[in-house]
Amino acid sequence: MTSFEEAETEETVTCLHMTFYHPCQEEKMMFRCLNFCKREQVRADEMAKFGRDSSVCRYNLMDSRVSRIQFALQFYRKLHSSEYCFEIKNLSKRTKLTVNQTELGYLNKIDLPWRCIICFGDYQILAEIQEGESVDYFETHLHLAEAPVLQERSLPSLQPVPESGISSSIFLCQDKSPTEMDENEP
């Protein structure tokens, strides 16, 4: 056998891609301590913390309006499953955190959807999970957005869109209740 044949099978690594945006980034440089465009390994048993306190947070945001520890991400495996996930927890007593449209108060936590937008204050972070198999660590890959991620990217709609292409939420906004109709009617 050759050394190639005897080599261990290479594991794929779960990677969390995060694209950061703040409208004042050019003037205030609040992302200057983040390592963009280079993957970073994080041990699976560590919490990836984001905030302004460099002694506690792995990812520092240089802004006095950001909490000492704003939020944390925990990598875990679902019970009785081989699926790996991230959990996001708001650690700010002052600022609510939203994940898509779910608002998290202090110490609230939820599973991070595979693709979502995290917001607090004027900060917008597009988070996208690239699945992997490694149990020892995961990677983060940070990016800087020049335009707001809320406008730049469209997230998949949480509501089903009928074949007509017209969402029922349009009708609900007009205070009309949806009515059944034959699919052959114009």
UniProtKB/TrEMBL annotation:
Source taxon at top rank: Eukaryota
Occurrences of domain FHA (ranges): 49-121
Subcellular location, record wording: Cytoplasm
Keyword Cytoplasm: yes
Designated name of the protein: TRAF-interacting protein with FHA domain-containing protein A
Family of this protein: Belongs to the TIFA family.
Keywords, sorted A to Z: Cytoplasm, Immunity, Innate immunity
Organism: Tachuris rubrigastra
Entry's Gene Ontology BP terms: innate immune response; positive regulation of canonical NF-kappaB signal transduction
Gene Ontology CC annotation, any one: cytoplasm
Keyword Cytoplasm: yes
SUPFAM superfamilies: SMAD/FHA domain
